[in-house]
Specification:
Length: 448
């Protein structure tokens, strides 16, 4: 079966899962040259196999709110592929979580994890639970109840979840506590644990910092530097604020962050004090807009950052936050680099538009792989029970991000015969990630 036939099948079977179909089509649109060069992929139906998860575990979560009322949520773990290592990928708590969203994230995760060169398969999980407005006790009871179900299916060598939207250090600690309690096993079953009880230094910063390291490599490839560049960032969570922090450290001027309520614009640019204030404000779930009262700037209620002029955009909130119209605004406003901190933040239209306009574009599976890479380092530190310093992890992260950049750039040059002079990181990342997984599947025969 050819790739186009495989896509038709996915579209027919999963028309009710738009995010998943979007992610599959994006990968498929770039791997044809590789497929043509390897008839065994077609013969062994590698693509057709990879678009079906190994399994999806779906469960009910009963928990009690502060009023003593019983609440019921749905939870999932999509174990997509363990061809290269234990299933690995975050857990998301957000009311928009559906099987389609988790399948798209799990599918992307297979290739992202392969790109790191570290031994991890791909998976993703979550629940349609909304942490907003919940008390700490409610969050704790929900995390315990979630892990009470999930613990049957995960372990340090089978499936190793981590955080994602709505799941940070606090939630991981509660889930880890329940896992330990039920299994009596103190192992690396989750990453993103607190430093001091199994967590790795730098895991919290890794995704945002890694995205900026990737950006630095892109700039170097164009003989440019990050210093003095004007950066627009969306989101005000883990990825966004750490990307803002690293970009600021390296001399860029970060002028926006945003959240679901609107965009904050500070023409003067952020500095460490302002970023610390933003981190504290979001940790207390308080409004981003209050920044203006403390530091000045402008608040654009219910607006995204893309109407503002800049050199670099790092969308880091959520999937499909940048549509075709936003991409047009980016191009009009002078954006030359788009680096995806979030997973699939650009719609297919938006990707087409910026690629047509030769904007340098780093897809999430390459640019935000720093988080999962440091998770892999956390797993190995847990196994040997020895911990590395911040500087050691930071050095590893930098070299992993450079390797991802260079291997994607090399693959783009090798397979893109049409368009020299433009590094197609999207095609390059898909080609490298896909090839690593496909070759493992070929070696395994028809199991997996
Ligand atoms: P957080 O929960 O820490 O932050 C998410 C941020 O995005 C918040 O500021 C939130 O605003 C905003 N946001 C969420 N949904 C929307 C929306 N529909 N419109 C506007 N703003 C929105 O999540 P992370 O920073 O961890 O994750 C962000 C993205 O990065 C996700 O795509 C995730 O999959 C990806 N990612 C995360 C990794 C990690 O290590 N954490 C690793 C790799 C990728 P509000 O507070 O108002 O809800």
């Amino acid at each position: 079966m050819s790739i186009s036939q495989a896509i038709e099948k996915v579209e027919a079977r999963y028309s009710h899962q738009p995010e998943f179909v979007q992610a599959v089509k994006e990968v498929a649109s770039t791997i044809a040259p590789l497929y043509d060069a390897h008839p065994e992929y077609q013969q062994m139906k590698i693509f057709e196999r990879l678009v079906e998860p190994d399994r999806i575990i779906c469960f009910r979560i009963n928990w009690e709110d502060d009023q003593g009322e019983v609440q019921v949520n749905r939870g999932w773990r999509v174990q997509f592929s363990n061809a290269l290592g234990p299933y690995k990928g975050g857990v998301r708590f957000h009311p928009t979580v559906t099987q389609s969203v988790l399948k798209f994230l799990g599918f992307e995760q297979i290739f992202k994890n392969a790109l790191t060169g570290l031994p991890m398969g791909g998976g993703k999980g979550g629940a349609d639970f909304d942490p907003k407005g919940k008390s700490d006790s409610e969050i704790r009871r929900f995390c315990y109840a979630f892990m009470r179900e999930l613990h049957h299916y995960v372990s340090k060598d089978i499936d190793v979840p981590a955080g994602d939207i709505g799941v940070g250090g606090r939630e991981v600690s509660y889930m880890f506590a329940m896992y330990k309690n039920l299994t009596r096993e103190y192992g690396g079953v989750l990453t993103g644990k607190g430093v001091g009880f199994g967590g790795s230094l730098m895991r919290t910063e890794a995704t945002g910092y890694g995205a900026v390291y990737f950006l630095e490599n892109m700039l170097t490839a164009q003989n440019e530097s990050i210093e003095g560049k004007k950066v627009l960032i969306s989101g005000a969570g883990n990825v966004s604020l750490h990307a803002a922090e690293k970009a600021t450290m390296l001399g860029a001027s970060v002028v926006t962050v945003s959240d679901s309520q609107g965009t904050l614009y500070d023409e003067a640019g952020l500095n460490q004090e302002k970023i610390d204030w933003l981190k504290a404000q979001k940790a207390k779930s308080k409004p981003l807009a209050e920044y203006v009262d403390v530091y000045g700037g402008e608040w654009f209620a219910k607006q995204k950052p893309w109407h503002i002029k800049g050199d670099i955009a790092i969308p880091s909130a959520t999937q499909n936050e940048v549509n075709g119209e936003d991409a047009k605004l980016m191009v009009e406003n002078g954006i030359k680099y788009v680096v995806e901190g979030a997973n699939m933040p650009l719609t297919a239209d938006a990707v087409d538009h910026i690629r047509v306009h030769r904007v340098h574009y780093a897809p999430g599976k390459a640019a935000n792989a720093g988080g999962v890479a440091v998770s892999a380092l956390e797993m190995s530190q847990n196994s040997v029970r020895q911990y590395k310093t911040f500087e050691q992890i930071d050095d590893r992260l930098k070299s992993i991000m450079k390797n991802i950049h260079d291997s994607a750039a090399d693959a783009s040059n090798q397979y893109d015969k049409t368009d020299k002079g433009y590094i197609d990181y999207m095609a390059g990342a898909n080609l490298v990630g896909f090839k690593r997984v496909a070759d493992a599947l070929i070696a395994y025969g028809i199991l997996n």
